[in-house]
Every structure is written in C-alpha cells, then in structure tokens.
Specification:
Keywords: Membrane, Transmembrane, Transmembrane helix. The structure is a single chain. The protein is of the alpha+beta class and about 150 residues long. It has two domains: about 100 residues, no CATH class; about 40 residues, no CATH class. It is about 55% helix and about 15% strand. It is built from three helices and four strands. The protein has a four-stranded antiparallel β-sheet, with no helix packed on it. Helix 1 runs antiparallel to helix 2, helix 1 crosses helix 3 and helix 2 crosses helix 3. It is elongated, with a radius of gyration of 23 Å. The N and C termini lie far apart (about 55 Å). The model has no long low-confidence stretch (mean pLDDT about 85).
Length: about 150
C-alpha cells in the first residue's frame, strides 16, 4: 500500500524533474537573447506546468472514480504540491508587484525631477543634467546614486 503511494509520487516527481531539466538544458543551449519576452526555457517550463495541471485534474477525477488506487493518491499529492506551490509563489509575487510604491519627497533636491508611473510602479529621479540618480521598479531599487533608499 505505502509502496504504491510512493511509486505514484515518484513517477509524478520524475515528470517534473525531467520537464524542468529539459527547460534548463534549453536555457543553456539557446540562452535568453531578448529579455523583454519569455525565452524558450520559460515556454517549456510553462508547458510542463500546464500539462501538470491537466494531470492533476485527471488524477482528481480518477480519485473520485476509484478511491482505492494508492498510486493515484501519491501522484495526486505530488501534482498538488508542485502546481499549488507555483500558484502560491506567483500569487505572492503578483500581490507584491501590485502594492503601491512610496517615496520620501523631502529628500528631493530642487534641480531634480521626479517621475512616478503608477501603471508600471516605477519611480525615476533625474538630476538637472538628465542623469538618472534613482530608479525603482515595484520593490526593486535598480539605481540609487544618492542613497535615497535608506533602510
């Protein structure tokens, strides 16, 4: 009984391991030439998750039809952990990206220009020469030449 459960779980884990290994190999072979669009490795990883979700639904249906299949239960648990983990992970990321961006205007010099973009959650501060002295996208500070982001 437990052996069948373990075999089912390992079979599903092998599916994800092979799928993500192929995605990793695609990254090593093709790289990520254009960073503003998903690379082939992203598409392969996404395809692995989509098929994993289909397998999860299939295993759920099978569980209701035959609840005594322990191999199915092990596979179902693995699919739930992987697909559920990715859904929660990306849900947290999207929640953080959509939070409002805050900045302290008291530290802004008169010759500097502040640009806020609520759509992209971007803060840009430029000096009088057009040089970017501070750049923040969502919660990631990319440029901070004057130490505006004191923590």
């Amino acid at each position: 009984m437990e052996k069948e459960f373990l075999i089912g779980g390992l079979r599903a884990a092998a599916y994800y391991a092979i799928g993500f290994a192929i995605a990793w190999a695609a990254y090593l072979i093709f790289g990520w030439e254009y960073v503003h669009a998903p690379g082939i490795h992203h598409l392969i990883g996404f395809l692995v998750l989509v098929v994993g979700t289909i397998l999860l639904i299939r295993r759920l249906i099978r569980l209701f039809n035959d609840s005594s299949d322990n191999s199915n239960k092990g596979s179902l648990l693995t699919h739930l952990l992987v697909v559920g983990g990715f859904v929660i992970y990306f849900g947290v990321i999207l929640k953080e990206v959509n939070e409002p961006v805050e900045t302290d205007l008291e530290t802004l010099a008169e010759s500097e220009t502040l640009t806020l973009d609520k759509n992209t959650k971007t803060i840009i501060i430029e000096n009088g020469l057009g040089d970017t002295v501070f750049l923040q996208v969502a919660d990631s500070v990319l440029i901070d030449k004057k130490n505006y982001n004191k923590e």
